[in-house]
Amino acid sequence: MTKGPKYRRAFRRREDGKTDYHRRLKLLKSKKLRIVVRASNNHIIVQLIQSKIGGDKVLSSAFSKELKDKFGWKASTGNIPAAYLTGYLAGLRTKKKDISKAILDLGIFLHHNRLLAASKGIIDTGLEVPYNEKFFPENLEERIKGEHIEKYANILKNEDPEKYEKVFSGYLNKVNINPLKISQMFSSTLKAIENSV
Q1: Maximal CA-CA distance, the chain
Q2: Within 13 A of 21's CA, how many CA atoms are on the CB side?
């Protein structure tokens, strides 16, 4: 371990790879509202944050678990379609509070595609968020609707039915969802969100 009079240990969250303090300082200095998007293995959280000296204030938020509880989403709350829907819900709630501009705060860029999907959901609500089109991959639109899940399920069902049953057992047995109809469920959940907010 490094020692000496000039050695200074890094902040714990920096050491753990959870916070990039240089980027965070730039975001705070901008004095703009931040849309903070965070993803765990099972959930997505999107919050609109106002930074204050006494501490950050949450102005609006959306949590992917709400999709199951309120909007009829039955699939995983940690996948790409769920990330988009959570971002879309957060964007609509933000617009309802008469807020039209914000900047993205994606933190340490883990769970890459889900963070991008949530960001796309926010942007699609019409909020003014600065971004570059090259930021989003070409096939993101297809993945947002869950078409990649349907394609994979279709291939497995035709080529290896036993593996299909094994891979999609969570969908088929636990929650009774047809993985070949994820895009239909996505569309109905999107409509439910639009009607409720």
Answers
A1: 66
A2: 7
- Backbone phi, then psi, for 132, in 5-degree steps? -110, 135
Nearest residue to 171 via CA among 74, 104, 90, 95: 74
38-45 long-range CB contacts below 8 Å, 24 or more apart?
Answer: 38/107, 39/78, 39/83, 39/110, 39/111, 39/114, 39/115, 39/118, 40/78, 41/78, 42/76, 42/77, 42/78, 43/77, 43/78, 44/77, 44/78, 44/82, 44/83, 44/86, 44/87, 44/114, 44/118, 45/86
Please give the structure tokens belonging to residue 122. 């926010």
Low-confidence ranges of the chain (pLDDT < 70): 1-2, 109-110
Put the strands of the sheet holding 44-50 in their side by side order. Answer: 57-63, 44-50, 34-39, 103-105
Domains annotated for the chain, with CATH where assigned, are: 16-196 (3.30.420.100)
SS3 content of the chain, % helix, strand, coil (to 5): 50, 15, 35
In the structure encoding, which two tokens stand for residue 100, read together?
Answer: 């039209």
The pLDDT of residue 20 is 77
The model's pLDDT over 159-172, given as tens digits with 9 standing for 90+, comes to 999 999 999 988 88
